[in-house]
Structure formats: C-alpha cells, structure tokens
Request: fold
Amino acid sequence: LSIIGNIQQQGFRVSFDLASNRVGFAPRGC
Amino acid sequence: ASAAALPFQTFSPTSLPRPLAFPESEEALQEDYSPASLGLFHVDDVYYSGADASPELLFQFRLRRDAIRVRDLSAAVVEAAARNVSGRARDFSSSVTSGLSQGSGEYFTRIGIGTPPRYVYMVLDTGSDVVWIQCSPCTKCYSQTDPVFDPRASTSFLGVSCASPLCRRLDSPGCNNRQKCLYQVSYGDGSFTVGEFSTETLTFRRTRVDNIALGCGHDNEGLFVGAAGLLGLGRGKLSFPTQAGPRFGRKFSYCLVDRSATAMPSSVMFGDSAVSRNSVFTPLLTNPKLDTFYYIGLTGISVGGSRVPGVTPSLFKLDSSGAGGVIIDSGTSVTRLTRPAYVALRDAFRIGAYHLNRAPDFSLFDTCYDLSGKTEVKVPTVVLHFEGADVSLPASNYLIPVDTSGRFCFAFAGTMSG
Reply:
C-alpha cells in the first residue's frame, strides 16, 4: 500500500466528490 | 379521439341525487364481489344512507368537505416546500489548523459537539470512519486542549441500544449490562478508543447536523494528543460523509495549511461549494475488500521535468485481492511509496539536487540537506501523475525542516517490508 500523506497535500484544496466518484486537487486552495 | 374531434356532445342534465341505499349486512357487501375485488362506494352513500337529509344539504356538506381537503392539501404542499428549503443540501464548513502546536502531526478541525454545542478540536481523518470523542467519566483519557465532553450535559446525546441496526454496523460491536452498544476502534499505530456508541448533534460553525453516530470514548490510549476526538471522513458506512452525505450532496473538501503555528486556519467544507472550479480530477477507485479508504490511481512521478523511469504504474496497482494501491489520507503525515518506487524517486531527486550540501539522515528520512545560511536554493520539481491529473508539488511539500539549524529532508519514505 502507498499513502499520499498530509505534508504532500498542504496548500491544495483536496476535494472528495463522492457523487461523481472523483478526487480533485486545486493548488493554492487555502 | 373521435368525440374530441366533434364540436359538440350530448349532455343529459340530472338533478342532485339522493344517497343510495347502502347495503347493511356484511354478506350483502360481499355478494357482488369476487375474492380479488373490493367494493368502492361514495362516502355520502355510506354516511347518509337512509338519512333524512336533502340532496342540497348533502351537496353543501360535500363542498365544505372539499374546501377543507383542498386547504389541507395546499398546506401539506407549502409545508413540504418549506421543509425542502431547510432540508436542502446546504453548504457548511469549519476551520482547519495544524495540530503541530499541540504536539500532533495531524490536522484539526473545530466543531461543536452536543446541545448546547461544546466546541472542541477534532482530528480530520480521511483514513478512518468512526467519529468519536473522549467522554467523561474517563477510565483512561489522554491530554486534550479542551475540557473532556460530558454527555450528561448534552440534551441531544442518546445512547444506542445493542439491538439497534446502528450498533450492528460496527465491525465488532459490544454490549454492556445496561444493553447499551459498545464500540472499539484500533488504529495502525496501536492507538485505540473504547466506549459507548451513541448519536449526537455536531455543529459546524452555525450549522447543526443531527443524529450522527458518535463513539463516546471512556478509554482512549496511544498516540492521540491535543484533540478531543476524531472526525472520521473515510468512505465506510459509519463515517461522517456517509452518514451526513445527503445533507451536503456528498461533496467535501479540505485545505491543509502550512504547519507553522503562525499560519492562518483554513477550512473543511461540505456541499457543492467544496469543489473548487480550478481542480484537476482523478477517478476514485474502489477496493472491494475494504470500504474505508479513498484509493486513487498513481501512474508515475516526475523529478526535474522528467518521468522517473523506475516509478511505474504497476508499483501502485490495486490488485483484485485488495492488496496494493494508493490511498489519500489526511491522517498520515509523510507520503509512503512502495520501496522500489521510493528508491527510484529518491535517487532521481538526489541526482537533481546534487548541488546541495547533504546532511545526516533524520528519523525515517534518508535524504537530507544542510540549507543553513541560504535564503534561496534551486531544487528539482516533483510532480505526481495521477490518472487524469498531474499535481505539481510546491517545494515546501517535499523539503521540510527537521531542526532549527537549517537541515531539510526529502519528505517521502518507503513502505516497510513485513
């Protein structure tokens, strides 16, 4: 198993669109 | 159709009818109907059968009844419409801060628990499902920033009975001598929480979300620190997004701020506005053996603008037995890659950063640099290639300070064998 951890997610708005089964990344999302 | 095409039709006016004589005996009622059919009568024939009431009066009764019925139907529609407005998926949010200043490598959100709401820090965790909070009386509680939650002070706290379907949703439900459902959650680092399973109201800023299954933890041990509990944002049946998903259209997002104590808080958002318009998307994958984790497809990694040759999609494949794959987790700090992928990535980075002074290893990091006295350095770019989405990381997401003397380490690690 590989894990994308929270240090690498910093600054991105990470969205979980469970209705459309997708994960999104938006830079400078904070 | 042919009748509708005619300009006129024949009408035979008849005056108001008297009620029909309604059959009085059960036998008479059943006589004319087969076992598969039922009689259908006009209400006036039933109520006023044999009554000495004029047809005009009965007709007025009927119109009056009709007016009442129309009023009730209209009121029902208005009420339902109003309910739709208040029950519609409304967006809500709460703040996100780094737990570092409270000794935690995780991220915290601040939400209200119970009625009236007591605001506490909760770990934001996409890698687990159960929502829980430390509860008094404590058999064993770790140190937390806010006062420990007392369920007796909340009017919305409700224990779950052992026979409840909610209790059976737990992986391994327990039952105490008061027939109250007991939960326990164990985490990969050996930490655990045990207590009474309940339902409670959570408040996000000013938005109340009622009846959320909540573990009321009386024995909480391990590496927890600072936060009052954990907001399980996983994909399983007891997670907050699964429980409350219909309230917010099954969309949520968070932004994890820089870990420095001075950083402004960010937010976790629920609802349509949670999804940013400038997002790049990758499909969510499913592990048929495990419903908690959010799996995504990692196809490669670039360093310094070139794909790392040894980092192939096969190293990240989620196989049919449920092994392997890549999950995205807000509760894990450092990204872990399968060992061959990590070694290839690390070697490529070392080559790209050959001009930087190496420093001794630190903890799980084997690629560190001495950047003391430097105000600016050039470092190779790192891009994660997901299916359909390339994510270019800021340098601060992969070169992190590990002490105050200017030592920075490459913040990836390999998975351990065994």
In short: Helices of chain A lie at 6-9.
